[in-house]
Amino acid sequence: MRRDVAIKTKEPDERPAGRRNLVDVVGQQLRQAILGGALKPGEKLPSESGLTERYKVSRTVIREAIASMRADGLVEVRHGVGVFVCNARPFPPTGLLETDPERISSIIEMLELRAAVETEAASLAAARRSPAQDEAIIEHFEDIDRAMERGLATSEADFEFHLAIADATNNPRFREFLELTGKRAIPRSFLQDQPDETASADYLAQIQAEHRRIAEAISDRDEHAAREAMRLHLKGSQQRYRNLIRKSS
């Protein structure tokens, strides 16, 4: 993982491929503001010139991002007046992806589902991530390190690391999926929510080594390596919990 790569900046690329990526980035941020409640139904978006200044992109990028959100039913354009937020579609019931901490098999089921989604997310993140998104992934990776050094629970920082990867796909559906699972998608949170239970240092070091390989592959824009690193990370978690089943049987 090379921080010097992550923090380099360059002028936005307004060629077709570069513009498409900028449209995705701007659109994702606006979608998150709407779905997260920062922009409320009926609220007017900043003017086109205001958005170009905020995101440091061209008017063409802003127009394409708005058109994409309009097609998704998130905003409506009132000609001569402005762009307004529509009623955001509600998320599915949270119970859809709840995990039963009393059943290790339930945890494994969640990990299998995450593997199906997040291996592709890691690959897309490697292909699409911006320098700022790369830096965010590294920052959250280092947050886990800091929590480990201080002997604190790492499940929340771990979840934020995976959310940062989801954001780097520039497809908001990946973040939505993880937000539906909540931090309970990180199995050791079941233990760390209990004051007398902590994950072992060796276990956390192994998990963090897997995180490093994922982050490095995304930083290197290596789609295959990112997909494989995420697959091995989540498959490894599945195996660790299957071993718990064997021990308890």
TrEMBL record:
Pfam families: FCD (PF07729), GntR (PF00392). It comes from the Bacteria. The keyword Transcription regulation applies. The keyword Transcription regulation applies. This is FadR/GntR family transcriptional regulator. Signal peptide: none annotated. PROSITE patterns: HTH_GNTR. InterPro entries: GntR_C, TF_FadR/GntR_C, Tscrpt_reg_HTH_GntR, WH-like_DNA-bd_sf, WH_DNA-bd_sf. Residues 20-88 form the HTH gntR-type domain. Keywords: DNA-binding, Transcription, Transcription regulation. CDD domains: WHTH_GntR.
